[in-house]
């Protein structure tokens, strides 16, 4: 049952294919990394020092783009109602959706962080920290994303609102994930991973409650 | 209601037929009172819950797998939808969507059917087929609750006019 759900969610969210999502968030991510040197000038040491932070901001913004497709279409279709009738808890449904959302954007994001790092001229050590940090932080971003999408799915103008709501919640991940770049060691990444884990643990319950609340409006 | 019985809930628009159906399904909490039922429940309402971008066959297959229904395609021929299985759901007409949602409901294999306006948008032939399926379900010991302002051609069907209970 869970496997069937995951298969359907991946079909909905993975880039490419007839029913799949788009590569737009990734192209957006690469575009930000590409535009940054044009904006601040071709000063290589400056780019290398600030590039890691730019990659983090770009990743955060890219994770906002698919939010309106995460929950709202299925809520409208009545898929969540039908799953609830079959005794599948809303929490399980949200947990599966978080997994699918993470799988659909994080691996590709990590992959495109490499060309982005090359564009910004990051050093090897920084690239390693950015990659590790993104690996630790993206599950948390996925959890926040699905949670916010569930909260705002039944509201008008939910898409714009969800972006605004995601940013403050993502601040801890950003502080510790990108902060490890300034210190140059992985201790910040450990904290970033801890925050990610907490968010992944909370999100199914918060998202499930949001689905139930949406059902009664 | 006992097994094999059918109930037709009637009432004007906005009186609360659909809300009552959602309460019976356990999707809404009643303001007062409680719902007691044994057995699983299947709901047909205005949301088809079938992926619009997928071909109908694939969309039905997903629910067939969730419901562990082995012959998910069989109902499609009963409802005269064989030729539509390769058509993406979003291209189907109102009546075809209704029939597709009904196929999903039948495949669920639940003993209690909650049908909210099951005949809306259907032509005479499809109406006959669906009424026959409802009769078959009841004769197999299933329960059917139908909310509709249209007349239902069911012989042993009790009617519950919601107007009598309105505040």
Automatic annotation (TrEMBL), chain A:
Required for the export of heme to the periplasm for the biogenesis of c-type cytochromes. This is Heme exporter protein B. GO terms for molecular function: heme transmembrane transporter activity. It is a multi-pass membrane protein. The chain crosses the membrane at residues 21-40, 46-67, 102-122, 128-151, 163-182, 188-211. Keywords: Cell inner membrane, Cell membrane, Cytochrome c-type biogenesis, Membrane, Transmembrane, Transmembrane helix, Transport. GO terms for biological process: cytochrome c biosynthetic process; cytochrome complex assembly. It comes from the Bacteria. It is found in: Cell inner membrane. Signal peptide: none annotated. GO terms for cellular component: plasma membrane. It holds the Pfam family CcmB. Belongs to the CcmB/CycW/HelB family.
